[in-house]
Amino acid sequence: MREKNMNNKSSVCTKFKKGDRVVAIAGNERGKIGTILRCVGERVVIQGLNIRKKHVKKSEQNPAGGIMSFEHSMHVSNIKLCVAEDTGVKLRTRVDPSGDRELYYKLDGQEITHRSLKNSNGKKS
């Protein structure tokens, strides 16, 4: 998979990060749960989801050759954060009273803070 240019601020995935537990809400993997392995732009690679197969020719790097299985990326619009009991929730952004941006979700009518967001320069916004 080609790595995309990460210099463009709008192409960086801010809502999800490595290690988050997510549920797929669209496509063939709808309803399945996995953990994010890496983020590339606005796409994420999720452990155990969106498995693709690739036919690999014998070479020095791969002397056995054959058919390899690997996780392909999914767009962030096709996943939701997974909280208790396999429930997917929509992450939203807000500014708290101190001026910091944070991600939150609504569950049973309550707003629950997920984590705070930081600017690309490392300071809180």
Overview of the structural elements:
The protein is mainly β. It has two domains: 76 residues, SH3 type barrels, CATH 2.30.30; 35 residues, no CATH class. The protein contains no helices and eleven strands. A six-stranded antiparallel sheet has the order 6-3-2-1-7-8, with no helix packed on it. A hairpin with a 2-residue loop joins strand 2 and strand 3. The radius of gyration is 18 Å and the shape is elongated. The mean pLDDT is 82.
Spell out the key features of this protein.
125 residues, SH3 type barrels, 2 domains, three-stranded antiparallel sheet
Computed over alpha carbons, the radius of gyration is: 18 Å
At the fold tier of CATH, the topology name of the largest domain is SH3 type barrels
Oligomer: single chain
Number of strands: 11
Q: Low-confidence runs (pLDDT<50, min 5 residues)? A: none
Main β-sheet, in a few words? 6 strands, antiparallel
The computed structural class is mainly beta
Q: Estimate nothing, just give the exact number of structural domains.
A: 2
The main sheet orders its strands as: 6-3-2-1-7-8
The CATH class label of the largest domain is Mainly Beta
Q: Tally the helices: what do you get? A: 0
Any idea what the CATH architecture of the largest domain is? Roll
Strand content: over 45%
The backbone outline, from C-alpha atoms, is: elongated
- Helical residues, percent: under 10%
Mean pLDDT: 82
- What gap, in angstroms, lies between the N and C termini? 32 Å
What is the H/E string? EEEEEEEEEEE
